[in-house]
Amino acid sequence: MDLNFFYLKHKIELFNINLYAYMLGLEDIKKEKFSGKRACEVCKWINKNLILEYSTIPEVKQLIATHEDTHVYAKNIINFMSDDYEEAKKTYNKIENTTKTLFLLIDRIEKEINFHQETQ
């Protein structure tokens, strides 16, 4: 199975860009789009491509937990936007840091999967 990890990173970056655009008043969003797992393209990709076959890889579990943090942060940002932009901005910085962690985990997962595929 050829997994498209670029697509996953792309969806994470789009999530961040759209959330920041919302903070700047450039994007009108529904709260569920950023804080709900059902509508999240990243969650869908992880569930479809990693959960069943690769959940034994420790980084996959870390990826899931770390990505769940982004949902919490996004929900907090949306709540802060009504009265505390500075707190929303601080929370967005947490999402940026979390994204760096997600990308490192994705790279490790990709290497691990490629290694196992090459040795089979």
Question: Can you tell me about this structure?
Answer:
This protein is mainly α and 120 residues long. It has a single domain, classed as Four Helix Bundle (Hemerythrin (Met), subunit A) (Up-down Bundle).
Q: The biggest beta sheet, please? A: none
Portion in strands: under 5%
Work out the helicity level: over 70%
Task: Count every beta strand, where a strand is a DSSP E run of 2 or more residues.
Answer: 0
The parts where pLDDT drops under 50 for at least 5 residues are: none
The radius of gyration is 15 Å
Keywords:
single chain; 0% strand; mainly alpha; 120 residues; Four Helix Bundle (Hemerythrin (Met), subunit A)
In brief:
The chain is mostly helical.
Break the fold down into its secondary structure elements and pairings.
Blueprint: H1 5-23, H2 31-35, H3 41-54, H4 58-80, H5 85-118
